[in-house]
Amino acid sequence: xxxxxxxxxxxxxxxxxxxxxxxxxxxxxxxxxxxxxxxxxxxxxxxxxxxxxxxxxxxxxxxxxxxxxxxxxxxxxxxxxxxxxxxxxxxxxxxxxxxxxxxxxxxxxxxxxxxxxxxxxxxxxxxxxxxxxxxxxxxxxxxxxxxxxxxxxxxxxxxxxxxxx
Length: 165
What we know:
Elements: E1 2-4, H1 10-20, H2 40-48, E2 52-58, E3 61-71, E4 74-82, H3 91-102, E5 107-112, H4 116-124, E6 128-129, H5 132-142, H6 147-151, E7 153-157
Parallel strand pairs: 4-5
Antiparallel strand pairs: 1-2, 2-3, 3-4, 5-7, 6-7
C-alpha cells in the first residue's frame, strides 16, 4: 500500500534514506559521501522546501520512501530509497509509478552518474538521460545542490519532457 507520509513518519523516512543510501558508499565520489548520508537537518530542510514523501507499506512496515517536489513547469522525484532488505522486489517501481501518476508536469530525476543501477532502474521505467548541457541547466535551475554534485550527477526525464529551458 502506498500512503502519503506525515510529520510522525520523519524518523522512518530518515532511517530508510540512510539505510538505502549505503549502496552509494564506495561508488559515488568519496568527497560526496558522508555519515549519515542525509542528516536530520538536511531532511527537515528538504521537507520545508516542499518535498512531499510517500511510503510503500508492507505488512505494517514502511519498506520504501520516495519524495515528490512540484517546481512550476516540472515535477522532481527526490530521495527514492528502499530498505536494503527489500531491494529488487518492485517497491521502487510502484512508488515511481504512483508519484508519476500524480505529476501534472514532466518529471525529472537527478541521481549520481556512478550509480549505474539507479540510472538503469529509471530507464527501465521510461526515463531517459538528458544531455550534459541540459543536465547542467536543469540541476542549477530546479535543485539546490553544490557544484561538485552537479558535476557528478545525471538527470533523467520522463517521456513527455520537451526540454523547456
